[in-house]
Inverse folding.
């Protein structure tokens, strides 16, 4: 019927899945609310409304099973006593889960899960009130209409005839396809009521008829043909016969008073007026009207289109630097050229607009982290329940905007961290009581902007991470050697939990401890050019801090040369740039270090150590970078300046090392590689140098580079 | 989907303009598709009763397709308010069987017709023609 088969249908289905997901989310949220305020009729109503919308959408898409399940639930919720049922929240949770897996099954065209558990729960709900409901249904059975007019009605007929109106006996058959006979009846009454006065109706108004036939008496000045035409209502009335009732017909038509809205006497108000009008006035405040309008003003756009625009903006930025370069050359060439000032003005204007354009386009991609955060209350509840713990989740900063692709990418790591916090971080109530903590644990989820970054924090007030435990576990799993472990600082030991194959949980529960481990969390963050930090205080709790760049597409970068090649690193990672002589460098344990003011800075030599023995007295640049708490100095040969880079992703076939995270094209057409700093830091932390200065030295050179070609590794751009 | 001969306004031969009110984006889109196949034009959309009223004031559509259950203000209330201000408004209620009583109430408050969810295009088409009455003409052929 309404199931579409063409591409339009596919598009609609996609929309359906999207909106259905949102509906399930609201269902979960409402269920959580209901759990806190059991028996709140307003929440139950809102659950019912959500389920109703889901039902309707599913039906329109032809997903019958989902629609029917939702329908059953909706019906059950309509029963008065259901709203006070204590298990209602549980039912809603189950429903959200089952509907969710049904949606997944539809999407993947897989076998549908059974809705049986939900049905059982619904039946439980219904039991309390079943007797009442059954009684109602029986009463609904009414025999077909019979035209027996009462004395009063006969009098009315006489009166109408006396006033010069014609009286018609209308027999109408309700269209069998119309599932709402009472509404059909009302519509017919409206139709004929507009042209006359309804004197009588059969079946009578107060019987909530299951009937398929209607008879009524109408007093009207119109001709029989016109009345018959009025009774032809498509989709509702299958057939209608009109017969005039005999009587004197005079020409006095003036007496016909048409009161379409008020069908007279007997026929009026089949359903008692209820509260529809009562709440009307309070809604009329301007703010509310305004709010409604704002909520509507939302556009759904394919993410790909925005990416296209962003890409073009990126090309424009390259164009801008091309222009700037050309202008500089022009200045050099003919410094007296009088047009220079005007060109410079135009360029400044263009660059300002370009900046705004870039910012606006990036803003389109931004979504509030709430989209991600809202799934956690339910999850925390489930995990806590399973572990027999009491946990409160406090969410703040949900309005913080984050690039949509970043948000999607951190969904899984964040889920893992939150699960960990509930599963391993928070102690159970008895343990907490023993330690003198409040028995309810608290997890805080927060997001905020800091400089050019977005920070997402997960903070628990649980047991914290025991560094001794971590150390012994790491030794046991042979992640570090004994003497290495001795040398590691406290913070470095804690950081061991990010190593692959590490898990401190004594027992692995079903929810936490499976799937992604912390090492995956870290690698995802690195891929996103972000970092993850741990701050832990034994006995007081642990904080995980995810730091993410605002966007993946465009960065401000510092350009420099190593071995004659051009590289770039994100400018916000650079803490300072120091100059030093080769002779200032010291060796500690085969690591090269630099004494910078009163700090010892470990160094990473990006080039070959032996490349410049002659320049031992020469000056070198040291870029001091900070990546997640650790500070490192990068030894580079020359600085090239800073520039905005539009990052072009490199596929794995182009670059085989994780040390490079992307490439970019400069205004003059040169290609620059962007280094992946977290990976470099990691490489440094894991290396055990066998000789002086060997740490990561020459890590950027592939074996093909030994011949002094001047082109970067990735000159072939896809 | 079937082909329908386009229904135009009698007075000027222009496409019939619709206001679609439903809290489900999906349902709105679905109805908008159908309207398109009837040769109609979407004048506006609203996701709740309140917006429906402002949108009606703004667009003065020929036909309003109105859902019953919506947040903030339900369809009946919105229908009633619109009809009170604009007795000429043609409002068609769109809802599922379970809300028959509400439909009856809406009909008593001035709604012109109703269709049942899930909406079948051929049913809606008939309803629209009926509700437009003499103000709508069915164009011959399937020209736009």
């Amino acid at each position: 019927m309404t199931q579409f088969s063409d591409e339009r249908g596919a598009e609609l289905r996609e929309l359906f899945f999207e909106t259905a997901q949102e509906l399930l989310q609201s269902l979960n949220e409402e269920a959580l609310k209901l759990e806190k305020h059991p028996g709140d009729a307003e929440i139950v109503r809102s659950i019912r409304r959500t389920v109703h919308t889901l039902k309707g959408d599913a039906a329109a898409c032809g997903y019958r099973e989902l629609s029917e399940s939702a329908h059953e639930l909706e019906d059950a919720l309509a029963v008065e006593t259901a709203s006070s049922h204590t298990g209602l929240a549980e039912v809603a949770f189950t429903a959200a889960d089952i509907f969710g897996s049904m949606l997944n099954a539809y999407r993947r065209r897989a076998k549908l899960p059974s809705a049986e558990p939900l049905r059982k729960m619904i039946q439980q709900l219904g039991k309390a009130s079943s007797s009442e409901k059954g009684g109602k249904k029986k009463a609904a059975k009414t025999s077909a209409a019979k035209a027996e007019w009462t004395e009063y009605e006969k009098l009315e007929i006489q009166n109408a005839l006396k006033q010069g109106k014609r009286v018609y006996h209308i027999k109408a058959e309700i269209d069998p396809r119309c599932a709402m006979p009472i509404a059909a009846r009302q519509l017919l009454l409206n139709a004929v009521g507009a042209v006359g006065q309804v004197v009588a109706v059969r079946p009578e108004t107060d019987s909530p008829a299951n009937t398929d036939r209607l008879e009524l008496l109408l007093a009207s000045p119109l001709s029989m043909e016109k009345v018959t035409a009025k009774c032809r209502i498509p989709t509702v009335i299958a057939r209608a016969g009109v017969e005039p009732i005999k009587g004197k017909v005079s020409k006095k038509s003036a007496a016909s008073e048409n009161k379409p809205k008020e069908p007279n006497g007997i026929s009026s108000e089949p359903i008692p007026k209820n509260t529809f009008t009562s709440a009307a006035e309070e809604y009329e405040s301007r703010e509310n009207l305004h709010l409604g309008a704002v909520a509507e003003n939302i556009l759904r756009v394919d993410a790909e289109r925005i990416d296209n625009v962003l890409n073009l903006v990126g090309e424009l930025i390259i164009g801008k630097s091309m222009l700037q370069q050309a202008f500089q050359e022009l200045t050099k060439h003919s410094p007296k050229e009088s047009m220079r000032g005007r060109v410079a003005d135009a360029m400044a204007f263009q660059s300002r607009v370009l900046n705004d354009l870039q910012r606006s386009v990036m803003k389109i991609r931004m979504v509030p982290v709430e989209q991600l955060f809202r799934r956690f209350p339910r999850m925390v509840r489930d995990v806590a329940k399973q572990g027999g713990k009491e946990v409160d989740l406090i969410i703040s900063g949900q309005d913080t905007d984050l690039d949509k692709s970043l948000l999607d990418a951190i969904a899984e790591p964040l889920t893992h961290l939150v699960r960990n916090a509930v599963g391993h971080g928070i102690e159970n109530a008895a343990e907490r009581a023993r330690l003198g903590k409040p028995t309810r644990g608290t997890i805080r989820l927060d997001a905020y902007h800091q400089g050019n970054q977005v920070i997402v924090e997960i903070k628990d007030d649980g047991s914290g991470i025991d560094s001794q435990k971590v150390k012994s576990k790491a030794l046991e799993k042979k992640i570090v050697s004994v003497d290495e472990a001795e040398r590691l600082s406290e913070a470095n030991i804690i950081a061991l939990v990010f190593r692959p194959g590490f898990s401190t949980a004594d027992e692995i529960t079903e929810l936490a401890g499976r799937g992604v481990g912390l090492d995956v969390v870290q690698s995802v963050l690195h891929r996103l050019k972000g970092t993850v930090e741990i701050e832990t205080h034994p006995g007081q709790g642990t904080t995980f801090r995810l730091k993410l760049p605002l966007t993946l597409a465009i960065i401000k970068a510092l350009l420099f040369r190593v071995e004659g090649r051009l590289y770039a690193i994100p400018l916000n990672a650079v803490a300072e740039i120091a100059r030093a002589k080769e002779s200032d460098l010291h060796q500690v344990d085969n690591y090269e270090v630099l004494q910078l003011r009163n700090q010892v800075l470990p160094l990473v030599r990006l080039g070959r150590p032996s490349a410049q023995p002659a320049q031992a007295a020469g000056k070198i640049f040291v870029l001091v970078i900070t990546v997640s708490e650790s500070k490192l100095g990068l030894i580079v040969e020359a600085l090239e300046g800073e520039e905005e880079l539009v990052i072009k992703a490199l596929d794995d076939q182009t670059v085989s090392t994780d040390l490079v995270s992307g490439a970019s094209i400069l205004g003059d057409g040169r290609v620059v590689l962007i280094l992946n700093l977290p990976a470099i830091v990691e490489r440094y932390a894991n290396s055990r140098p066998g000789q002086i200065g060997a740490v990561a030295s020459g890590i950027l050179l592939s074996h093909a580079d030994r011949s002094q070609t001047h082109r970067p590794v990735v000159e072939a751009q896809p | 989907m079937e082909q329908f001969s386009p229904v135009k306004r009698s007075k000027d031969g222009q496409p019939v303009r619709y206001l679609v009110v439903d809290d489900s984006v999906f349902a709105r889109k679905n109805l908008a598709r159908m309207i398109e196949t009837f040769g109609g034009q979407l004048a506006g959309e609203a996701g709740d009763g309140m917006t429906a009223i402002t949108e009606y004031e703004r667009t003065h559509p020929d036909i309003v397709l109105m859902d019953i259950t919506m947040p903030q203000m339900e369809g009946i209330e919105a229908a009633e308010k619109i009809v009170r201000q604009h007795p000429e408004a043609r409002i068609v209620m769109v809802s599922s069987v379970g809300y028959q009583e509400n439909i009856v109430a809406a009909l008593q408050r001035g709604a012109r017709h109703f269709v049942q969810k899930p909406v079948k295009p051929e049913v809606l088409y008939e309803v629209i023609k009926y509700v437009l009455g003499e103000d709508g003409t069915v164009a011959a052929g399937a020209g736009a």
Residues 17 and 41 of chain B are 5 Å apart (CA to CA). The first helix of chain B runs from residue 25 to 37. Chain B touches chain A through 55 residues (CB under 8 Å). The two ends of chain B are 16 Å apart (CA to CA).
